[in-house]
Amino acid sequence: MSLESVGVNLDGFRKALSAFASSVNVITMWDDDDKPLGMTATAFSSVSADPALVLVCINRSTRTFERITKRRRFGVNILGSVARDISDYCAKSGADKYLNEMWLDNDPNWHSPALAGAMAFIDCEIEQEIHAGTHAVLIGAVKEIGLNAHPQENDPLIYFSGAYRPLQAVVNYPRPQLLPIMLEDVS
After folding, report:
1. Could you tell me the end-to-end alpha-carbon distance of the chain, in angstroms, rounded to an integer?
2. How many CB atoms lie within 10 A of CB 121?
3. What CATH code is carried by the domain that includes residue 78?
4. How far is CA 47 from CA 120, 129, 168, in A?
5. Does residue 5 lie within any of the structural domains?
6. Contact 54, 45 (CB under 8 A)
7. Cβ-contact 74, 56 below 8 angstroms
8. 151 or 110: whose pLDDT is higher?
9. Is 127 within the bounds of a domain?
10. DSSP string of 3-38, one letter each residue
11. pLDDT digits 0-9 by tens, 112-133
12. Residues 1-16: what's their mean pLDDT?
């Protein structure tokens, strides 16, 4: 296997990022009329365990960004494979993606909309906002966490190379060839 140089351009950048397998998440927020909205995102990561911090990256030109930064709250719903239709719905560009009330977990502890079918829900308050290019990195302080009571009944929803991919239970990778390693005597 070898790499081919393609230069730094939008097409090459997108192709390189499509080689990154990631979980599929729906970022949720409330609109001005307290209606729940969602946006599908793969740009999510943990930042710190103590204190508990996560980050999401959102395009600053979107209504989603305006709504989240106005309320200073967002939820991260880590999706399982059963929520693929919700992911597809929230991934549509342009229109507001109002969430069906039947999809929600109405626990009074949540400050952001939580999807009942999520593998996990992370309720956040914006701690820091960093502008970078067309996007903003929103670092959220985790205020509440919800976990699926039966995670073993649902595979994670994974996105790779422009498509959803199943999780394989067991993968047999070929063993690498032994490398010539010389150990020096450190005594």
Report:
1. 40
2. 24
3. 2.30.110.10
4. 17, 13, 27
5. no
6. yes
7. yes
8. 110
9. yes
10. -----SSHHHHHHHHHTS-EE-EEEEEE-TTS-EEE
11. 999 998 999 999 999 999 999 9
12. 82
Sign of the four-CA dihedral 149, 151, 138, 65: negative
Domain count for the chain: 1
181: exposed, middle or buried (Cβ count in 10 Å: 0-12, 13-18, 19+):
exposed
Q: Mapping DSSP to helix (H, G, I), strand (E, B) and coil, where does residue 180 land?
A: coil
DSSP state, residue 108: T
Q: Is 174 exposed, middle or buried (0-12, 13-18, 19+ CB in 10 A)?
A: exposed
Residue 139, φ and ψ in degrees, nearest 5: -95, 120
Rounded Cα gap, residues 4 and 20, in angstroms: 17
Answer whether the bond into residue 51 is a cis peptide, omega within 30°.
Answer: yes
In terms of residue numbers, what domain contains 59?
21-165
In whole angstroms, what is the distance from residue 135 CA to residue 59 CA?
A: 4
Question: For residue 121, what are the β-bridge partners?
Answer: 77, 146
In this prediction the pTM is: 0.84
> Strand, coil or helix: what is 116?
coil
Of how many residues is the chain composed?
A: 187
Encoded tokens for 127: 């701690």
* CA gap 109, 122 in Å, rounded: 12
Residue 184 forms part of a structural domain: no
